[in-house]
Design brief:
Chains A, B: This is NADP-dependent oxidoreductase. 2 copies of one chain form a homodimer. By secondary structure, chain A is of the alpha/beta class. Chain A is 24% helix and 26% strand. Chain A has 2 domains: 159 residues, Quinone Oxidoreductase, Chain A, domain 1 (Alpha-Beta Complex), CATH 3.90.180.10; 151 residues, 3-Layer(aba) Sandwich (Rossmann fold). Chain A contains 9 helices and 16 strands. In chain A, strands 3, 4, 5, 6, 7, 15 and 16 form a 7-stranded mixed β-sheet that branches. Chains A and B meet through β13, α7 and β14 of A and β13, α7 and β14 of B.
């Protein structure tokens, strides 16, 4: 039994391309004591993965050349040497990697833990999107940093993306106004359909700062930033007093080195508005995963939380899925489905 | 009896100059019911005043052309129509203005209140420096936003300035290491003499980012930023995990419009380090003035808090004092003394 794998072929300078990885065939491993063998059904593509293929250090170790590309996914247990897991169980793991089969150690601590997928709660791939890392990111980012109050105005960049669409719905549940920024009218139509009150197409808007001022006449109380770059600058110039800014992602500038992210510092607005800006890495909050999943699932049952996926089919398309996600060509959470039902 | 006053003559484009104000002679007012007449002894020059002479709105209303320049000071009550104040009392007021005599209403709320100077606590001009607005700024900025812990590394820009020198001493009292950034070796010698552990001359240092990394081998836990600009960028690239950044001042870029403060956005460092950046306006915390003054005074009595002033003499030198303070040519808290003992 062969195990196809995508290995890191080069640390990209600038955007990743299909040549960033190469397809290889390895062996399927044997689960040792306390381990399981998982067949990958779904892989998740997320912007944080761009940071993992830099040669330098990020908040966690990156992928070395020749290693299997890191990435989370969902799969089926096809062999088990762990008393708590049996064949046929569905597992979600951040440590799955871009491969068709993985030997995993379920009881590792924290982010490395293998999580059980409850098929009664949702389709298994939900554990990669609104019940998984993006959902928990939106949940914690809003509840712990953004802290929207009734009547607040919440602006979300990449609003139809995996995190953004949940942020907008939590804003509405919190009694706040939600303003979406995205790249196409089709994405913005979707944002309106899930409750966003106002939308801004940043590609067709001449004066983004003025458009945000118009959409947010009393200023921006919560800015959930998934993009960085010029969108970030335009929102920062519209902060309300005592605003909260969640720095969650920076997909607009992530291909540049950190010391080349040049633009508006906004220090005048920060002082004038006494705003708080905070970086968010969801894995710091992984101990609250169960709480977040429980709440997200109940919101979904109540009909208050919906979610849009963008699925490509076939293991060979994983790099393509990553590249299009980084270019903003996906519409909804980017997934790859390996095994068709 | 004549009342010399400095009136705003022009909203400066770029740095303020002597021509930003013009000297005028007005009448000395009569205190109405509940008012006092104060003869100015000391005037305080502070960077926040630059924001007050912009034509646009800041966090509070600015000075209009032809109006007396705003600014705090200390003076002696020479006539009173208020039961709680008598001739000879010493008063401190943010509302004194650049004039030799002022009619004040002591019982206005908040920042507009006239404060009593306790001559037993300190020299009266201390109420403009370490017992006044700069002292309270350092106190609140460190206790509420910076929150230094024992073993933390605290970096302060404009470290020998009115706020910076107190920040450094509070860092040391908190068990933290304190690193000073300033413009001359003389200023940095002073910083060492009051307890700073390491110093960086930003004018003579080739690679500021590397110098900070060397002075802060485990990163910067608290960055108390009084300058903004390139110093800000260099420190931001050295933040430790879960750092706190106090955006207190931006004297390096304050002469530019807010949307021209261009430089490093630091979003990568903010995410990687999960840092918090917060703007500080001390007047939000004015209800804690008494607490801050009490604590600062006790630290001074204990010998744990010292302070350096830079005094010019004569009312005619007030604009000159402002211009040199904005250019960083002062050494210690900039004051003007109007009445010699």
């Amino acid at each position: 039994m062969k195990n196809r794998q995508w290995l890191l072929a080069a640390h990209p300078q600038g955007p990743a391309t299909h040549d960033t990885w190469r397809l290889a065939e390895g062996q399927v491993g044997e689960p040792g004591p306390g381990q399981i063998l998982v067949k990958t059904h779904w892989l998740s593509l997320d912007p944080y993965m761009r940071g993992r293929i830099n040669p330098g250090a990020n908040y966690t170790a990156g992928v070395r050349l020749g290693q299997v590309m890191q990435g989370g996914g969902v799969g089926e247990v096809i062999a088990s040497n762990h008393p708590g897991w049996k064949v046929g169980d569905i597992a979600e793991a951040m440590t799955l990697g871009w491969q068709e089969y993985a030997v995993l150690t379920p009881d590792l601590p924290g982010v490395a833990r293998v999580n059980r997928v409850d098929p009664k709660l949702a389709e298994p791939q939900a554990y990669l999107s609104w019940l998984g890392m993006p959902g928990i990111t939106a949940y914690i980012g809003m509840l712990e940093i953004g802290r929207p109050k009734p009547g607040d105005t919440v602006v979300v960049s990449a609003a139809s993306g995996a995190v953004g669409q949940i942020v907008g719905q939590i804003a509405k549940m919190s009694g706040a106004r939600a303003v979406a920024i995205a790249s196409t009218d089709e994405k913005l139509d979707y944002c309106r359909s899930i409750g966003f009150d106002a939308t801004i197409n940043y590609r067709t808007t001449q004066d983004l700062r003025a458009a945000i001022a118009e959409a947010c006449p009393r200023g921006v109380d919560v800015f959930f930033d998934n993009t960085g770059g010029p969108i970030h600058d335009a929102v920062m110039m519209n902060l309300a007093t005592f605003a909260r800014v969640v720095i969650c992602g920076r997909i607009a500038v992530v291909d540049k080195p950190a010391d080349e992210d040049i633009g508006l510092r906004s220090s005048a607005r920060l002082i004038v508005t006494r705003s708080t800006v905070q970086g968010l890495v969801v894995f710091d909050w992984w101990h609250r995963r169960e709480e977040a999943i429980g709440r997200l699932a109940s919101w979904n049952r109540d009909g208050r939380l919906t979610f849009k996926e963008d699925v490509l089919h076939g293991f060979e398309r994983v790099p393509e899925a990553f590249v299009r996600m980084m270019a903003g060509q996906n519409f909804g959470k980017q997934l790859v489905k390996l095994v068709e039902a």
